[in-house]
Structure formats: structure tokens, C-alpha cells
Design brief:
Blueprint lengths: L1 H18 L6 H31 L5 E4 H11 L1 H6 L3 E4 L4 E4 L1 H17 L8 E15 L2 E14 L9 H4 L18 H11 L3 E6 L5 E8 L15
Parallel strand pairs: 2-4
Antiparallel strand pairs: 1-3, 4-5, 5-7, 6-7
Length: 234
């Protein structure tokens, strides 16, 4: 998919450079639409690759400092944060067993999502917090106690009707038109796949016009036999 798309982009650029002055009206509009469509297709391909590589390119789990991950992601998003005059507040985050690059992708998708779906004329405020909770579950006649990290990403954005909760985590699903908010509809699907790969859960609470809180629950530690990436399953 990448190679033919690359040719469309290259020849589109050549056409614009060599014949741009001669193109006006409808022909120029066609060229600009083609270039925008090619850019969207490139983004979609990259998102699909990210989605597929959650399980095929993952590395073994290691101890990850979520606070450090959050700081790095916020640095990466500095330009976008300044553009929308927003801010991201990060509370105390723990260390957990995880795949570090996937944790970066998870934070980037959730924080980026919060910055994107902001209310008009209301600077976005995103709050990232975590707490350690205890889970007790029966296992072969005994009760297994596990420590879990409950991570929350809360925003003051447009929110959504919770009847669409299951839908937002599916591939290519959008609640708003592309003209209103950019994107491929893959960000939350990728986030969900990462969470499931780490044997966790993801959900959200929201109301239209009142913002959204995404809630991610991840094991703090994994048994040694589960820490090899190829042995983790959805």
C-alpha cells in the first residue's frame, strides 16, 4: 500500500511544482483534493501498522516509570498544547510491568484525544492521575490478590453520549465528521488493543458538553511466564 501511495504523492508534488501556475479553478481544486486524500491515506496506513504491531512487534515486559512516559509524551505534544492554549496536569504515577513503547502510544493517544475533542473557545485542560487498587479473584479454589494500576485521563472537552461507549473503541469508528475533527478513527482502537495486550481493561465516563474520563486498569506486575510478549493474548 505504501509504494503506490508514495507515487501519488510524488507525482502530485511534481504536477504542482511544474504546472501550478497554469492550474486554476477546478483543476487546482482537484489536485489539492488528491493531495489531501493521499495524506489521509498515509495516516491511515500508519495507524493500521501501529494497530497490527501491538502484538507482532512488542518487546518483553519490563518495569516502566509511567511518570517518565507521561513527561516524554507531553514534551512531544508541546506544539499542539500551545496551539490550543491548553494544559496537561499529571499527578503521581507508579512503576508497572509493561512494554514501554506501547505505554507511550497509549498516553499519546489518550492525551491527544483529549486535546482534539475540545469545546470551541474553551482551552482544554487534561488531568492524568493514577491509584493502586487491590483486586481479589478466585483461581482454582483459592483467592488471588493482585495489585492494579487504575489510570485516569480526564478532560473538559465536548464529551459524548455513553450509549456510544462500545462503539468508540472499534476500528474506524467516529462519532463526529472528519470535517469537524481530523483523524482516522483508529486512536482509541489502538489504545484498547494495547490495554488488552497488557491484560487490562479500558472504559470511559462521559456526558455531552461536560468532558470525558478514560479509565484504564493495568496489572502492576505480571508473572514471569507472562512477561514474554508472544505469550500475552487479548
Amino acid at each position: 500500500l505504501q509504494e503506490p501511495l508514495r507515487k501519488i504523492v510524488v507525482f502530485g508534488e511534481r504536477l504542482k511544482e511544474q504546472g501550478g501556475e497554469k492550474l486554476d479553478g477546478q483543476p487546482r481544486d482537484y489536485l489539492e483534493r488528491m493531495q489531501k486524500a493521499a495524506a489521509r491515506m498515509q495516516t491511515l496506513i500508519n495507524d493500521l501498522l501501529t494497530f497490527s504491531r501491538v502484538t507482532t512487534r512488542a518487546r518483553p515486559f519490563a518495569q516502566v516509570d509511567l511518570a517518565q512516559v507521561a513527561r516524554e509524551v507531553i514534551t512531544d505534544l508541546e506544539g499542539r498544547i500551545e496551539l490550543v492554549k491548553g494544559r496537561v496536569e499529571v499527578g503521581t504515577l507508579p512503576l508497572i510491568d509493561a512494554e514501554v513503547l506501547q505505554m507511550r502510544q497509549l498516553f499519546q493517544n489518550l492525551i491527544g484525544n483529549a486535546l482534539k475533542f475540545r469545546r470551541p473557545d474553551v482551552p482544554p485542560v487534561v488531568k492524568v492521575a493514577a491509584e493502586i487498587i487491590t483486586s481479589r479473584a478466585p483461581d482454582e479454589g483459592t483467592t488471588v490478590v493482585r495489585k492494579l494500576c487504575r489510570l485516569t485521563v480526564t478532560d473538559n472537552g465536548i464529551g459524548f453520549d455513553e450509549k456510544y461507549l462500545d462503539r468508540i473503541f472499534n476500528v474506524f469508528q467516529r462519532l463526529h465528521s472528519r470535517n469537524d475533527y481530523e483523524g482516522t478513527g483508529m486512536g482509541l482502537a489502538i489504545a484498547r488493543k494495547i490495554v488488552l495486550f497488557h491484560r487490562g481493561e479500558i472504559t470511559a465516563k462521559s456526558k455531552p458538553g461536560e468532558g470525558t474520563t478514560f479509565i484504564v486498569t493495568l496489572p502492576v506486575t505480571h508473572p514471569k511466564e507472562q512477561q514474554t510478549a508472544g505469550e500475552n493474548h487479548e
